[in-house]
């Protein structure tokens, strides 16, 4: 009976974590470049149940007990949320009319799990990756993200505009005055190597394969649309449906837990009293 408590409780905890993930997706449905998270639910390893007993055997010289084991079957001990995985599916484009906004549009990618990203520099000076092209120009004339992180060119240097008006063509070449600056675009052959850091940034995981210059890979094609941003890829209708499903599953596990609690109450306070 106690095992049933743990199984039902694990189901409630898994659905609660799943609900938290879905709620975060809904909260970022209007965040440019946001990639929704998907919670993967996995069962705990199954246990093999055996009945242990003994059999008395009589012989001419006496009797003795022989240990016996009989296999009953397997039992599952519940579920848990193993991990949350970002979905890097391309979001739709929204026109903003702002010259500092850019949308990175996937073209041909040689790997099914591949993805393209703008390269930026965080406060610690480390390179990070983002799909959020909602850029701006700071007081020093550098192109930055909305959070103030420098946008890098293909050589890994901050892009300086000197406060001048600039244009960006479909190949991602930023033209400011007489300068032609290629906006930094990185390609990841396996986006599962990336981990979310918050503020729309992704970092390379410990065992991940380093990202490459997208322009140096002949099999990769892309274009950049100026005055557009990529919207979130959250499907709000589907997410709301999933939230209702998670709530119902949580409620079902809660009722199972209450049933076990009532059975335990009878076993302790009624059956035990009679004995």
How would you describe this structure to a colleague?
It is a single chain. Strand 12 and strand 13 form a beta hairpin. The protein has two domains: 123 residues, no CATH class; 138 residues, no CATH class. The chain has 275 residues and is α+β, with helices and mostly antiparallel strands. The longest helix is centred in the C-terminal third of the chain and has 39 residues. The two termini are 20 Å apart. The mean pLDDT is 89. It comes from Paraliobacillus ryukyuensis. InterPro entries: Flag_bb_rod_N, Flagellar_FlgE/F/G, Flg_bb/hook_C_dom, FlgE/F/G-like, LlgE_F_G-like_D1.
> How many strands appear in the DSSP assignment?
20
Number of helices: 2
Q: Based on CA inertia axes, which overall geometry fits?
A: elongated
User: What percentage of the residues does DSSP assign to strands (E)?
Assistant: 35-45%
Kindly, what is the distance between the CA atoms of the first and last residues, rounded to a whole number of angstroms? 20 Å
- N-to-C SSE string, H for helix and E for strand: HEEEEEEEEEEEEEEEEEEEEH
Whole-angstrom Rg:
29 Å
Estimate the helix proportion, in percent. 10-25%
Tally of structural domains: 2
Give the averaged pLDDT, no decimals. 89
Helix/sheet category: alpha+beta
Tell me about the biggest sheet? 5 strands, antiparallel
Low-confidence stretches: none
Domain Flagellar basal body rod protein N-terminal: 5-35
Main location: other
Keywords: Bacterial flagellum, Cell projection, Cilium, Flagellum
Domain Flagellar basal-body/hook protein C-terminal: 225-269
